């Protein structure tokens, strides 16, 4: 899935109409369908995998391959352990990562690549305002994904025998999911704003970083280097086991701080580099 960039408006009059509302609301409006598709797809995936929990047998839980235990599959017998591995430790965080990479790669890079950025900045909107409004829309899409996933798993909480996990635990994991998506969105947005790289390049670098750190987080215990996990965002996303322990403020703060550093650096560079 890729995120649609704001529509290229023909001529100066079209660009002028773009400023009839804030760049934040315009970006939300232009990407409303894409944000909805990301949220719906991720929510349905989470619901489907969460619904499989009653079918997990004791033998299946005990026979999880050793290579998968670092990805959260070390306790498949309990509801929280199953969700931490099969739902929130596998495909859902990767989808959130790809959402951030794809959307962030389009927020600045797509417009600069197409030449639309020059048209935008010829009107009364500063570079900083443009970038921050675009990024705020990206973050709103991430929150929508997290809310949809939360609603999806709560919808099957009783029927899938997941009541051992509290609503607070599910909410904490959803908060971390949003923060993870926003972090990779900040990385992609900052890369595009700072380097003028094309959207395909920015997406590739960001998605590659996501997959690499995901693999590092999963395989580090097998090579006796657990400390490497602390260098990955996935440790702060799920390492504190929010499904069992609730929101870990320190972990959430690390994800938020990394996001702020990335977007601040990208904004500063965007404001100082030659866009010609």
Automatic annotation (TrEMBL):
Alphabetical keyword list: Membrane, Transmembrane, Transmembrane helix
UniProt key word Transmembrane: yes
Listed GO MF terms: ABC-type transporter activity
Residues passing through the membrane, by range: 34-56, 76-99, 135-154, 174-193, 200-220, 252-271
Pfam families membership: ABC2_membrane_2
GO terms under cellular component: plasma membrane
Highest taxon in the source lineage: Bacteria
Full protein name: ABC-2 type transport system permease protein
Organism: Thermomonospora cellulosilytica
């Amino acid at each position: 899935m890729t995120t649609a960039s704001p529509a290229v408006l023909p001529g100066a009059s079209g660009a002028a109409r773009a400023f009839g509302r804030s760049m934040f609301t315009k970006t939300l409006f232009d990407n409303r369908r894409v944000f909805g598709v990301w949220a719906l797809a991720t929510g349905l995936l989470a619901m489907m995998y969460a619904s499989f929990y009653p079918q997990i047998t004791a033998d299946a839980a005990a026979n999880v391959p050793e290579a998968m235990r670092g990805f959260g599959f070390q306790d498949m017998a309990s509801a929280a352990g199953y969700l931490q591995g099969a739902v929130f430790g596998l495909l859902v965080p990767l989808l959130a990562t790809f959402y951030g990479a794809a959307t962030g790669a389009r927020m600045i890079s797509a417009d600069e690549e197409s030449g639309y950025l020059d048209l935008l900045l010829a009107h009364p909107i500063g570079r900083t305002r443009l970038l921050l409004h675009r990024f705020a829309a990206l973050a709103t899409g991430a929150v929508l994904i997290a809310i949809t996933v939360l609603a999806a798993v709560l919808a099957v909480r009783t029927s899938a025998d997941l009541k051992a996990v509290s609503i607070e635990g599910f909410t904490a994991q959803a908060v971390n999911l949003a923060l993870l998506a926003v972090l990779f969105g900040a990385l992609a947005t900052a890369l595009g704003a700072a380097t003028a790289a094309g959207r395909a390049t920015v997406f590739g670098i960001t998605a590659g970083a996501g997959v690499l750190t995901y693999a590092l987080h999963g395989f580090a215990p097998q090579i006796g280097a657990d400390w490497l996990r602390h260098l990955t965002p996935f440790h702060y996303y799920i390492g504190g086991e929010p499904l069992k322990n609730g929101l870990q403020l320190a972990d959430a703060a690390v994800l938020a701080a990394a996001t702020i550093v990335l977007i601040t650096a990208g904004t500063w560079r965007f404001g100082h580099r030659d866009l010609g």
